[in-house]
Amino acid sequence: MNLKRQIILLIAGILIIPLVSIGIVFTILMSHETAEGLAFEYRHNSHLIQGWLNGDQVDAFPAIKADQDILIELDGRLVFSSISELKPVQLAQTLAKHDVLSSWYRVGDAKYRIYHLYPAQSWQTATNNSKFALLVPTTLILFIAGMAAWILRSMHFKVKQLVKTTQTIARGDLSQSLTMEGNDEFYMLAESLESMRQQLKDDQDNRTRLLMGISHDLKTPLASIKGYVQAIRDGLAKTDATRAKYIDIIAVKSDLLDSRIRALIEFVKLETSQWQVNKKNQILNAYIDTWFAELSNDIEVSSRFTELSNSLDTNLKLNFDSALLRRALENLVSNAIKYSPIESTIRLAVSNTEHEIQFRIHNTGAPYSEEQQKSLFQAFYRADNGRNKDGMGLGLTVVEKVAQLHSGQANYQYLNKLHVFSLTLAKSQPGRLTHRSNST
After folding, report:
1. Looking at the domain assignment, is residue 176 inside a domain?
2. Given 120, 137, 153, which residue is the final one in a domain?
3. What is the pTM assigned to this prediction?
4. Which of 174, 313, 414, 422 has the fewest C-beta atoms lying within 10 Å of its C-beta?
5. Residue 91 lies in a domain
6. Number of H helices, E strands in the chain
């Protein structure tokens, strides 16, 4: 039961059940089947009889209910009986067979005794009915009180859980998960809070991995540079040829360090949304032709072959950032070159659907393990796990970020012994990025 219904039920119970209880009690107590009802009836009938005896309410009596008989005695003589053919000698026997209420009433010098006869045990039954009349509303009130206590206790417990969890998160402890049963708004809030906690924990883990990745990727070439500089200082490079060799190594390591720093800066800009996205509505085929002409040369220099399959309409336009798209495609192609054998063919395919444009890069190579596939788009992850190679494991992460900036997806599959990386650009803006990795 959701929170709104619980509150409505609680308020309704507090307002309605006491009123219903009062109505039930009043109705039952005023009926002739309870002690209170019989007492009311007794007083009413006594009033009618007294009026009749005074002679001012002749027509009002004997208007007596069928389950009640009236006897009137004057100075020991029976002067009125609602029981037909009742003889005075039978009076004592008749009174013994009934529940009797009697009262005295004086008119002038005459003193009348009025007997009200009820069926035997009727007053005991009426008393029991009175107790039952009080039991019903008492039960209802206890029920609503119990329900109110249960609802309030449940709310208090859930609020206490939420407060405790938020305080734990505020202290920076993200290790404790939040579980809550039910399907109300508290449960939905707990789910959202747990999702936030998990996301914060993932972000915290990513930051840790980011710092570790940066330290490893920058430390390796920097350590090499420092080592060769120290060797030159210590006079270990005694010949010009050796010194020139060391200097060349330092230059290579410096270039590697520079490229990694630039890649890191680029990644941080994309990660923190500081990159100025410059989208323009332009004909996509003209862009692809220019890009492929330049890219095919790079692929051929790497001793690999290239093919392009383009099924786009000639004048199809798309709103995109040329520089970002080029960087993403170059990262995909660079990745394909790095992990495909020499003299293999790298295939590029461009297609479109009703909602998106898709770029696909196919290349041969040994398949990734399932664990590797899950980590391909993570920052600083490299399938070869080599620290001395170019790059920082940010290429595919940048591809994913570019896809996100174009409301698209980055995707990997292993199909027919081919690595297939794809980058999709949305024709509209349907939502945020996801990336998937599947092998078949």
Report:
1. no
2. 120
3. 0.50
4. 313
5. yes
6. 10, 12
